[in-house]
Specification:
Layout lengths: L9 H16 L6 H8 L3 H7 L3 H31 L6 H17 L2 H16 L5 H4 L1 H18 L5 H28 L9 H17 L1
Length: about 210
């Protein structure tokens, strides 16, 4: 008989199982049956902790995104405090956004690869309802960075600011999701595992684009 899974670590086991399924095969693969089998719990345990598959999937992403976003915002707070009462340095704002992401993905081994795959599923699965649900996690962060970058570049029209933020975010996303192509093209000369070097280059590139 499958255990009910009401122990103290049951919620974590369910999250771990759902996370692996989503990372390896996509959101649709994380059916309630697949999750209960992988976590060795019954359906009542999943319903007790999460209520629905949708809530479970959102919890999987929130577990990864919230600590990452909190670290980003601490870095942004520090950049703003260092420059107060003047606007923060553009490079410092961009670094606070980029560095924690690269470090989590490239400095955490297999765990980092799971994070990378989770983000890829969210971005690339057509018509995914998850993107709308995750807006509650990301919208406050986006608003805060948009305001900070606007202070860095006060002469930039708001519409142009949105475009440049979009392009800068695209460069980071592509670096995360397609970095293996760079390593192949450079025959290993470009090493994405060098988090500081990658961060420095990406910040320089994004800052130049924002200032152009």
């Amino acid at each position: 008989m499958v255990p009910t899974g009401r122990g103290p670590d049951t919620r974590t086991r369910i999250l771990d199982a759902a996370e692996r399924l989503i990372a390896e095969a996509g959101i649709d693969a994380a059916s309630m049956r697949a999750v209960t089998t992988a976590a060795k719990v019954n359906l009542a345990a999943v319903n007790y902790h999460f209520g629905s598959k949708e809530s479970l999937v959102v919890a999987v992403y929130a577990r990864r995104l919230r600590p990452l976003n909190e670290e980003r915002l601490r870095g942004l707070d520090a950049a703003e405090a260092a420059a107060a009462p003047n606007p923060p340095a553009l490079d410092a704002v961009l670094r606070s956004l980029i560095e924690p992401t690269l470090r989590q993905v490239h400095a955490s081994g297999a765990d980092g690869q799971i994070v990378l795959r989770l983000l890829g599923r969210c971005l690339n699965e057509p018509g995914s309802w998850l993107r709308e649900l995750l807006a509650t996690e990301m919208d406050p962060l986006i608003a805060r960075y948009t305001m900070a970058l606007g202070r860095c570049l006060p002469e930039l029209p708001q519409v142009e600011l949105y475009w440049r933020i979009h392009f800068a975010a695209g460069a980071m996303t592509y670096t995360l999701s397609q970095g293996h192509k760079l390593e192949h093209m450079s025959k290993g000369a470009c090493e994405l595992g060098d988090v500081e070097g990658t961060t420095r280059r990406l910040v320089q590139f994004a800052a130049a684009g924002m200032r152009a």
